[in-house]
Give the backbone structure.
Amino acid sequence: MSAAPLRSRFPILEEETYLASHSLGAVPASAKEALEGYHEAWARQGIGAWEGPWAEAIATFNEQIAGILGAPEGTVAPMLNATRGMAGVASALDPSQGRDKIVMTDLEFTTSYPLWRGFEELGAEIEVVESPDGVRVPAEAIADAVDESTLLVHTCQVYFRSGALQQLEPVVEAAREAGAYSLVDGYQSVGVVPVDVAELGVDFFVGGSHKWLCGGPGAGYLYVREDVAEELDPRLRGWFGLADPFAYEQLEGRGPPAEGARRFLGGTPNVPGLVAAREGLEAIREVGLDRIRQRSLDLTDRILVHADAQDLTVRTPREEDRRGGMVCLDFEGAEQATDELAEQGIVVDWRPDCGIRVSPHFYNTEDEIDELFGALARIRG
Ligand SMILES: Cc1ncc(COP(=O)(O)O)c(C=O)c1O
């Protein structure tokens, strides 16, 4: 696949050597018109916008995310962010009913710890499975931690600190066999690594649009397996999670929940965020995840070759089926080098216990990778 014809759709690529899609994906120029359309409907149609373009924006976002995840209709709901998706799941679980253990790893994104630690106050026990090398966690180690007392297993598909791709099948399988739920955080994988949530059989899958999906903030999502949604009644539920929100009933109790993932909704979805996300999601669909994955593997291979030539420490698994779209490179002075690269218009970022994170996406070129390493060689002298 040639990246050239697509590049002109992403304005930032004219300005920068942009290799930070694990953090914030490049936004297509067309998102500007989409947002102008949002404003236009608001300005000219007033409340009429709700029943027209805004309702459509919500439905389109759900369809787009479902398409990317391989999720059946009705199993995806928009969330303000991935954390809100996790919180919705937590609010549907009860650690006082015989199962109280939450299994997670020590490589999850920062948000997962305060979230599930908060659940400890309701009686949950957290078991954190440690990575032996700070890069990956063997799937068997997670599976071994799952037992009859496990309520939920939570893991990332790709870890933010190392770019390691988790083998999810044994984890989901172990949860299922033990009668526990499984939750996958796909924020660092969806958009660059193909996933099929239905085939995987996972119970919950959360993520958002502002990284590899090029969709901007405020457009997170929650997938809930069909049969799992029907057996749960999230306490973090509001009028949009009711079977008929627009009946405006004076409810005695909590009211009948909507079908499927929609029951996890609270209030009004973040329409401008969903509108802004549409263009990035469409670009991903258009290019296709299999092509994106192949392109990503080719470009990350090139990074590994350069890194070895410059004797940098690679903190990402090298095997193709064990890495996502990001490569972490470490060396003395890596944090400062990140700033110097930025001064030269080369955008990457730095994280502790990781080093420089480099993330080419489908719109990047081989030349940009070479430029990064040329600059690194000069900076490091
Ligand atoms: C793996 C992972 N999960 C979750 C998040 C954050 O999720 P949110 O801010 O949408 O709650 C991030 C990064 O921002 C991440 O890398």
Q: What stands out?
A: Residues 81-83, 109, 111, 156, 160, 185, 187-188, 208, 220 surround pyridoxal-5'-phosphate (CB under 6 Å). The chain is about 40% helix and 15% strand.
